[in-house]
Amino acid sequence: MTTSPARLWFLDWVRILAFFVLIVYHVGMYYVTWDWHVKSAFASHAIEPLMLLSSPWRLGLLFMVSGVASSLMLAKTGAARFLGQRSARLLVPLVFGMLVIVPPQAYLEVVEKLAYQGSYADFMRLYLGRYHGFCRGADCLVMPTWNHLWFVAYLWVYTLLLGGLVAGLGSRFDRLATRLANLLVGWKIIVLPVALLSLARMTMLSRFPTTHALVDDWFNHAVYLFLFLLGAMLARTPPFWPRLEQLRWHALGLAAAGWAALTIYYALPDDVLSAQAQQPMMHLQRIVYCLFAWNAMLAAIGFAHRHLNRDSANRRYLAQAVFPVYIVHQTLIVVIAHAIQPAKLAPGLEALVLVVLTLCLSFAVADIVRRSRLLRPLFGIAPLAADARNGRASQQVTA
C-alpha cells in the first residue's frame, strides 16, 4: 500500500499521445459517413475501418489515465483542496469553452446542414438565448452546447465522486486498491475487466445510447466511471504497472485480432445473418469490441511503461500544452475545413492540410495561453504563481 505514490511519467506520455490520436480522429470525422458538425464532399465509408483502430478505446484510456492523475493529486493535497483545485481547473475552461470556443462549431453546423443565412452575431444571440429551432426533423441542435468538451464535464463529475469516495473511505480506499491490484494478475488482468465492460455493453448500450448530455448517458457512465475509478485505485499500487509491460505484446495481438474481427462484422451486408443469428452475433460483437478496447489500453500503457517511463523537457512542455490544445483543436478543424472547401483539394491532401494546420495553430494558442496570466485559468493551466511555486516538473494538467 502506498499513500503517496510517485509520479508515473509513462502515463503522462500515454495521455499526451492519446490527445494527438484524438486530433487525427476528429479530422477523420470530416471524411466518414457518421454524423458530425461539417462534412467533406468526399465523405464515404473508405476510412471508417481506420477510424475503428482507435474509436473503441481512446476515450476509455483517457478516463482511466485521468483517474490515475486525479488519485495522485488527491493523495498529495487532501480532499478539500483537491476538489477546489479541480473544480477551478475544469469548470472555468468548460464555461469559457461553451461561450467562446465551441459556438463556431455550432454556427458552421447550421450553415452547412440548414443553410442558415444569419451572421455570427445573429447566431450568438440565438445561441445564448437557448434557441431550439435549428432542427432536421426531430433532431434539434441544443444550445448552448459543450460539443467535444463533454469530456471535461464528465471528468469534473467523476472527480467529485472520487473526492467524496476517498473522503468517506479514508485509509480503506488504499486497502481496497491493494486488494484489487492483488486480484489483477496474469490472465485476470485481461479477463475480469473485459467481462465487466462486456456486461455493461450487452445490457445497457441498446437501452441508453450515447448522448454526451451527462444526465441520461448511463451506458457511457457505466464504462467511463468504471475506468476512471479503476485508474484511481491502481494509481495507489505502483507494483501493478510493470505487469502491463510484461503483457504488452499479448495485449497488442488480442487488440489487433479484435479490430480485424470488428472490421469484418461491420462490413457484412445486413441480410447475411438470419434473424435468429442476429442477436447472438450482436452480443458476440460487443464482447469482441470490449476485448479489443481493453487490450488496446493495456498495450498502450505497457509499451509506454517499457519505453517512456522518464521525465524530460519535452514531457513537461507537452503535459502543460495538451489541455489547451484539446480545448481548441475541434473548433480549428471545423473552421479550417469549412474555410478551405472552395480550394477543392484532393481528399488526401486536404486531410494532411487539416492535420498540419490544426496542430500548428493549436500549439500556437497553447504557447500564447501559457504566457498569459489572464488566459491560463481559462484553458485549465495553473496560475503562474502556483506554477513557479510547485515547479514545472510537478505540473499537473486538468486531464
UniProtKB/TrEMBL annotation:
Keywords: Acyltransferase, Membrane, Transferase, Transmembrane, Transmembrane helix
InterPro entries, A to Z: Acyl_transf_3_dom (IPR002656), Glucan_succinyl_AcylTrfase (IPR050623)
Ranges in a coiled coil: none
GO terms assigned for molecular function: acyltransferase activity
Domain Acyltransferase: 10-366
Protein's recorded name: Acyltransferase family protein
Pfam families: Acyl_transf_3 (PF01757)
Annotated TM spans: 12-32, 57-75, 87-107, 149-168, 180-198, 218-235, 247-266, 286-305, 317-339, 351-369
